[in-house]
Amino acid sequence: MLNHHDESNLQNMLHHLGRLSDMIFALAMALTILGCQLPQSPMTNQQTNHFLFNQLNSLSNYAIAFITVGFYWIDHVQQFKYYRKTNEIHLWLYLIYLLCLFLVPYSTALTVYLPQSLWAKIWFSINIFCLGMLSFLSWTYASYNHQLIDRNLALKTIKLMACNTLVEPLLSLLTIGVAFFNLSLWDWVWFLLPIPYIILHKFDQKPTITPREFSANNSRITLDSNSHLN
Question: Membrane-spanning regions, if any (predicted)?
């Protein structure tokens, strides 16, 4: 049983982890965009058009990486909304998660500089898969018996959050299969990413009753019944 001092330390650790995570997310997203190539010398209009046309594939890869990290950042914000504390195991899970996140700009650069390489694309997909699975593991560990999250968080919300973390790993497995058949299609599969999130968001709009609300409603019904009987 933790005393008040230990609880306070675990909560402070959570605040530090949140700040560190925000900085690494911002840095990873910035490094992804900073990888864009720029012309090294002045160009004619024809050369500029040719340069921009050749950059379309690279820009799509940067967009994929940025959007992917953006969805992970949304998941991260939603999870931290429900966290109440952390512990050593959860810290290590999240630190490894942040390590995988920091590898995304490198993985993106590989797909840009090696656009026809099957293994460069598979490496990117594996990077995203590991990132998602670590997010799933950290949330599953934290939500087990509500040990690190809000005690009154509904089971439906916990399951929806877990499903959110599995969207990108499942999509990354699909992209690996697609890459073996058509490298060009690999890029386009990633743009399907918003669709499952929209579907899950629809489920999340339905009203949820927490255990505390359920108990309060039952008590209110009992009191109303007793008053009518009297």
Answer: 20-39, 51-74, 94-115, 122-142, 170-193
